[in-house]
Amino acid sequence: MGEAEAVAGPSVVLVEPQLGENIGMAARAMANFGLAELRLVTPREPWPNPKAKAAAAGADAVLDDARTFEKLEAALGGLNLVFATTARPRDMFKPVIDAGEAVRRAAAHVEAGGRAGFVFGRERWGLTNEEVALADVIVSLPVDPAFASLNLAQAVGIVAYEWRKAAMGEAPPIPSKSAAAAGREEVVALVDHLEAALERTDFFTPPEKHAAMMVHLRAMLSGAGFNPLEVRMLRGVISALEKGPHRRR
Amino acid sequence: MGEAEAVAGPSVVLVEPQLGENIGMAARAMANFGLAELRLVTPREPWPNPKAKAAAAGADAVLDDARTFEKLEAALGGLNLVFATTARPRDMFKPVIDAGEAVRRAAAHVEAGGRAGFVFGRERWGLTNEEVALADVIVSLPVDPAFASLNLAQAVGIVAYEWRKAAMGEAPPIPSKSAAAAGREEVVALVDHLEAALERTDFFTPPEKHAAMMVHLRAMLSGAGFNPLEVRMLRGVISALEKGPHRRR
Description:
Two copies of one chain form a homodimer.
Chain A: H1 2-6, E1 11-15, H2 20-32, E2 38-41, H3 50-56, H4 60-64, E3 67-69, H5 72-75, E4 81-86, E5 96-97, H6 99-111, E6 116-120, H7 129-133, E7 137-140, H8 152-168, H9 184-199, H10 210-222, H11 228-243
Parallel strand pairs in A: 1-2, 1-6, 2-3, 4-6, 4-7, 5-7
């Protein structure tokens, strides 16, 4: 599929997939609809996985090129527009869009030179709030609330299908701020830096609110679309405030 | 999902499905997206099929209500708008449309009191020309010709997904991040607070860069689209870092 190979389509990131069959079927659906790059965060079964290969039904290239990571943060390396897919409504300060809108944004972003990725959660319970907070945008699939348990490979297939529709059709050129956005690893390092600085203060009061406060901060800083220069500047701000009042005068 | 239950959604007709797992996964995808009526033409394994039940992951109602037929002609009974799905181009005198267009036609047909159905072929080789000839319209899924072998349940899932999108109507309004953004005066106060804090440190080095650095910081914080809660949280961050290490311990 020339048009989608010319630009690198979005990466598919599976977080702790439990079953090799699901990884293989996801790879097959990716190949059906022209997506090539698969990243796996700590698959539960050893990798490479013969059951994945059998279920991929010939989509070997996707599996052979798949990379594994220990943490989602690392798996997002190089991506500067990240979508978290979810079937459940989330009570978070993040925009929620549908899959069609998401792939149109991804296509515009990729066309502008950015790298996009779609994150899919575990078979049984999806993504944690902390993982969703690492994304820029939440993508909601319109499942019936009365039977919301969507198979992992089905979810990947629907996003891949929407991608191919967008890649084959007219991707409306949405001017994208995010193409120049900092890579996810830079934002993760910024958040880590800020957390370490705040841990030396009374900010996390009471201490049991620490995790919830960090979810907010991470979501806020991940969603702001800062470019690399801005991230460096914010790190300078944190360092300066950490050091405190002037030393040289 | 009231709106799709009120009208009977299209039937899903599987012709000689080979594997019980695929029937079960198709039923699961149907339930995910609000389709209820499954018709099976001569499934290869005996019916009911425990492997189908396991793969349905709880979509038992779809399987329990499924009916089996010996011939496709009989399975189409009562349907007066029939779509044949295919991943391959067909050399036939029939209109070929995409899945989105197909479900819109199906929805209009159902709303007008008709009954619609989507026919899916065998895992290995799809539908015969004779079977396709029984349909009114061919629905083509946009698979990559280089890897066109789409899993049966994936195909059903994509049609069901498109059905639900159509049944739910226009995409729900996307909550705009900017609508909830903090007022400009709150952002100005945040920037002023940060500037005052930084003036007590070595951040503005050399001092003649002070103004240019503030232009950057102001642009960055104004453009991030923070909401009022986020602005308050950032002011808390600045205050905490200003105060420095713990006092109470």
